């Protein structure tokens, strides 16, 4: 698979599995998400009760050139991991009251809360709280209307404001994520997308959905398949997707600005948990955005980023927020974290 012909073939792939899973959803050969999310369309949500939130939020605003009028403030004391449905309803009402009609997405600048009962806070904000999923977390989820769609303005067209969370436990690390997202828009470097089939069979449900290996010359991107439990020493990572409870050797890797990385496991979105690796470890290792579930999802691939959809959207110029949100079919339990505006392939938008 080489050259521009291979790229066109890949970008127009129809993912039969995705279409079958979501009857009535846009087909996989739909065009990418329009012109992409703009800084003027993103709101920054500051938690005034978390000291690091204001500092990181203001830094993020300046780095990305976001209007000061797009900053909203809330107060969430005591850093709870999880909110009740009633607590979340009150929080969302306070946020919504401060948002202008043109806002298409929000960035929550805090480390906790990150869950609403069994839902992630990002999905509860975007799609509404899904009580049915919490009755049986291992049941199939509700389809996202944004999955694999060609929607350019999610709030204007669907009434959905896409949400992402930027953890702020360590100010310097949070600022570094913002810096990587900001510089990612320059000419993309030669890079690789790594897809690992591991020894953990239960966490390999996405392996049949990996994009085909080969070189995409126009994007200077090599797609690589490995049978291994971890990468060791790779220095050119733009995408890293795998399935393990804990991913080893992250300290040997170099992630390029704008890199996406995630692992299919039950509790990657439990940012303060210790049972499995938190998706926040990806950001600490140098990735710019990631994803993980906050409650037991079972191994449905639909509850995790679909690898071919994620890569196609990102290479077509979507932001990290648009690419990640557009790649998850049933996202109720999934937490989206990192820099929403990262877009290494922005010049390929159409």
From TrEMBL:
Instruction: Please tell me whether the keyword Signal is annotated for this protein.
Output: yes
Could you name the domain of life of the organism this protein comes from?
A: Bacteria
What PROSITE patterns has UniProt attached to this entry?
TAT
The cross-references to InterPro entries, in alphabetical order and at most eight, read:
CHP03790, TAT_signal
Please provide the record's keywords in A-Z order: Signal
The UniProt entry, under NCBIfam families, shows: TIGR03790 family protein (TIGR03790)
The signal peptide, as residue positions, is 1-28
- Protein name per Swiss-Prot or TrEMBL: TIGR03790 family protein
Q: Which organism is it from?
A: Janthinobacterium psychrotolerans
Transmembrane stretches in the record are none
């Amino acid at each position: 698979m080489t050259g521009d012909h291979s790229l066109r073939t890949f970008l127009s792939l129809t993912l039969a599995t995705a279409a079958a899973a979501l009857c009535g959803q846009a087909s996989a050969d739909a065009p990418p998400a329009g012109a992409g999310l703009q800084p003027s369309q993103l709101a920054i949500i500051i938690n005034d009760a978390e000291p690091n939130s204001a500092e990181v939020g203001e830094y993020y605003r300046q780095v990305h050139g976001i209007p000061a009028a797009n900053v909203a403030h809330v107060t969430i004391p005591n850093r709870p991991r999880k909110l009740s449905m009633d607590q979340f309803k009150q929080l969302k009402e306070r946020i919504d009251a401060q948002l202008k009609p043109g806002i298409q997405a929000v960035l929550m600048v805090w480390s906790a809360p990150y869950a609403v009962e069994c839902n992630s806070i990002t999905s509860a904000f975007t799609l509404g709280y899904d009580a049915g999923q919490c009755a049986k977390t291992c049941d199939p989820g509700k389809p996202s209307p944004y999955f694999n769609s060609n929607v350019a303005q999610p709030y204007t067209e669907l009434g959905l404001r896409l949400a992402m969370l930027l953890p702020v436990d360590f100010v310097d690390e949070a600022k570094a994520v913002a810096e990587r997202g900001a510089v990612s828009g320059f000419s993309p470097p030669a890079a690789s997308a790594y897809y690992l089939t591991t020894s953990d069979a239960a966490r390999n449900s996405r392996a049949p959905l990996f994009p085909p290996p080969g070189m995409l010359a126009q994007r200077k991107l090599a797609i690589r398949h490995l049978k291994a439990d971890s990468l060791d020493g790779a220095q050119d990572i733009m995408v890293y997707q795998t399935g393990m409870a804990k991913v080893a050797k992250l300290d040997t890797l170099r992630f390029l600005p704008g890199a996406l990385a995630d692992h299919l496991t039950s509790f990657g979105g439990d940012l303060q948990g210790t049972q499995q690796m938190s998706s926040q470890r990806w950001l600490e290792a140098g990735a710019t955005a990631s994803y993980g579930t906050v409650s037991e999802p079972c191994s449905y691939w639909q509850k995790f980023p679909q690898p071919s959809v994620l890569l196609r959207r990102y290479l077509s110029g979507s932001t990290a927020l648009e690419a990640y949100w557009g790649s998850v079919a049933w996202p109720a339990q999934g937490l989206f974290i990192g820099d929403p505006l990262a877009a290494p392939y922005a010049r390929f938008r159409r």
